[in-house]
């Protein structure tokens, strides 16, 4: 990566352009590092989530699913499992992200937050493209249908992405502050899977456990996403005010932790 040059004092717009170039360069570097220049390369960004979702949908369709109650298990998997990839993959890639790229901090315009943006945007792009590919494929075969409310479904996806952004920054920060996190974080992610709202809808959970489950902003966002797809076919439970408040607080905490990490990290 070459050093970018600009005058000592720049306008806000010029600063945004410079940071955009930095993040774009880091994103391309991540793609080349992870997928190389040979074989299917960047196409693996689409193939990987496609294989995940097809595998889960096939497994769920082999059993008589009583946990969905609406439509087929394959339909629920095709719609829901991509939401898991949207928050799990970015957070997994954030562990020790600064340590892996620490030598790049010698470039005066590169900051730890740029590493996080590059990895998060890469995973968001892959997750969204993978979901659309799977969804349209299943739609062509009649497994899924057009959403009841596309705008609500899109907003639900963005709310999940918002939670994922905060969660990923939190992961990145604590992994730089504690060596133990790298060892246990994958276990934490596995424990989150059953309570993510992606493996069964909230309405099948009896009270009072449903209320406890809905304390997770991820479940609220996923339920809203389900509402956009299923509409009145499936009862959904979410509290939009609570979701926005918790996501906002979580984002502020995560950004504060990232700022602490940025002060402690020194170029190698």
Short précis:
This protein has 268 residues and is an all-alpha fold. The chain contains 10 helices and no strands.
Task: Describe this entry's structure for a reader.
By secondary structure, this protein is mostly helical. It has one domain (13-264). The protein has ten helices and no strands. The protein has helices spanning 12-35, 44-61, 73-93, 97-100, 112-140, 150-177, 181-192, 209-213, 217-230, 240-264. The longest helix is centred in the middle third of the chain and has 29 residues, at 112-140. It is globular and about 55 Å long. It starts with 11 loop residues before the first helix and ends with a helix.
Helix and strand topology:
Layout: H1 12-35, H2 44-61, H3 73-93, H4 97-100, H5 112-140, H6 150-177, H7 181-192, H8 209-213, H9 217-230, H10 240-264
Helix tally equals 10
Structural class: mainly alpha
Helix content: 55-70%
What is the CA-atom radius of gyration, in angstroms? 20 Å
Descriptive keywords:
67% helix; disordered N terminus; 268 residues; globular
């Amino acid at each position: 990566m070459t050093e970018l040059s600009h005058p000592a004092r720049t306008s806000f717009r010029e600063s945004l352009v410079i940071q955009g170039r930095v993040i774009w360069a880091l994103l391309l570097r991540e793609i080349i590092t992870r997928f190389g220049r040979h074989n299917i390369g960047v196409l693996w960004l689409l193939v990987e989530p496609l294989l995940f979702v097809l595998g889960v949908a096939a497994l769920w369709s082999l059993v008589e699913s009583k946990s969905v109650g609406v439509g087929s298990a394959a339909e629920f998997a095709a719609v829901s499992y991509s939401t898991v990839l949207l928050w799990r993959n970015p957070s997994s890639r954030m562990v020790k992200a600064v340590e892996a790229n620490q030598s790049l901090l010698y470039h005066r315009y590169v900051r730890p937050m740029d590493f996080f943006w590059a990895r998060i945007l890469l995973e968001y792009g892959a997750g969204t493209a993978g979901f659309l590919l799977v969804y349209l494929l299943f739609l062509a075969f009649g497994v899924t249908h057009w959403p009841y409310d596309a705008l609500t479904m899109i907003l639900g996806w963005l709310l999940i992405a918002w939670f994922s952004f905060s969660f990923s920054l939190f992961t990145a920060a604590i992994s730089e502050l504690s060596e133990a996190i790298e060892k246990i974080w994958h276990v934490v992610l596995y424990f989150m899977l059953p309570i993510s709202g992606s493996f069964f809808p909230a309405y099948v959970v009896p009270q009072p456990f449903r209320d406890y489950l809905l304390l997770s902003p991820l479940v609220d966002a996923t339920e809203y996403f389900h509402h956009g797809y299923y509409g009145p076919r499936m009862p959904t439970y979410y509290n939009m005010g609570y979701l926005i408040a918790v996501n906002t607080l979580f984002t502020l905490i995560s950004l504060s932790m990232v700022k602490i990490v940025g002060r402690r990290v020194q170029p190698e």
